[in-house]
């Protein structure tokens, strides 16, 4: 057995087709803070990020059209989960719908890292599935 013990997530990298559209979604719709946005826009860094908390970010990487073909080439990942403060997720879902965000599922009760929680599932502009949950 390895002495390695994973205890939290550092970051997720999403391949996105339009960085500005994705930045707008994650900052204006989901309320996350942009990181390295001006550096990206000025060409100093290859991609911007959005910050979930002090320890976790989502990198928004430009989708490469010349990437090697994979069986699941159109799928970046199954989904990722963001934990939100306690809220009425039915109201949150209605608010997101009013902003043009498709609600895939929920609110529903699901199992997660800290036990049962209520979740909704949405898509970002590139079709990445996001679970938003409240414990």
- Low-pLDDT runs of 5+ residues are none
Largest sheet report:
4 strands, mixed
How many beta-strand runs?
8
Please, how many helices? 3
- Overall geometry: globular
Question: What portion of residues is helical?
Answer: 10-25%
Cα(first) to Cα(last) distance is 32 Å
Overall pLDDT: 86
Global structural class: alpha/beta
| Proportion of beta-strand residues | 35-45%
| Order of strands across the main sheet | 1-4-3-2
SSE order in H/E notation? EHEHEEEHEEE
Roughly how many Å is the radius of gyration?
A: 16 Å
Keywords:
8 strands, single chain, 135 residues, four-stranded mixed beta sheet, 3 helices, alpha/beta
Task: Describe the secondary-structure layout.
Layout: E1 11-16, H1 19-29, E2 33-35, H2 37-41, E3 49-53, E4 56-62, E5 80-84, H3 89-98, E6 103-112, E7 115-123, E8 129-134
Parallel strand pairs: 1-4, 5-8
Antiparallel strand pairs: 2-3, 3-4, 6-7, 7-8
Question: What would you note in describing this structure?
Answer:
The chain is of the alpha/beta class and 135 residues long. It is 19% helix and 38% strand. The strands form 2 sheets. It has a 4-stranded mixed β-sheet, with helices on one face. It has a 4-stranded mixed β-sheet with strand order 5-8-7-6, with helices on one face. A hairpin with a 5-residue loop joins strand 7 and strand 8. The longest helix is centred in the N-terminal third of the chain and has 11 residues. The model has no long low-confidence stretch (mean pLDDT 86).
Brief digest:
This protein is of the alpha/beta class and 135 residues long.
């Amino acid at each position: 057995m390895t002495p390695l013990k994973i205890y939290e997530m550092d970051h997720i990298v999403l391949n996105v087709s339009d960085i500005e559209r994705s930045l707008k979604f994650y900052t204006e719709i989901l309320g996350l803070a942009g990181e390295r946005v001006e550096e990206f826009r000025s060409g100093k860094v290859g991609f911007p990020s959005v910050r979930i908390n002090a320890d976790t970010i989502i990198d928004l990487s430009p989708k490469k059209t010349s990437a090697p073909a994979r069986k699941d080439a159109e799928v970046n990942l199954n989904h990722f989960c963001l934990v939100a403060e306690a809220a009425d997720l039915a109201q949150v879902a209605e608010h997101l719908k009013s902003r043009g965000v498709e609600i895939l599922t929920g609110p529903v009760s699901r199992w997660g890292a800290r036990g049962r929680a209520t979740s909704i599932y949405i898509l970002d502009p590139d079709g990445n599935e996001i679970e938003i949950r409240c414990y």
